[in-house]
Amino acid sequence: MAENDSAQSIMRTLLKLAKQLVIMLLVFTLVSVAVDIWRSKDINTMDLPNIKALTIDGTQVDVIAMSYEQPVLVYFWGTWCPVCRLVSPAVDMMSQHYFVVTLAMRSGNKQTLSQYLQHKQLGFSVVNDPRGQYSRLWSVQVTPTIMIIKNGQLQYFTSGFTSLPGMWWRMWMA
Question: What's the fold here for domain 44-173?
Answer without folding.
Answer: Glutaredoxin (3.40.30)
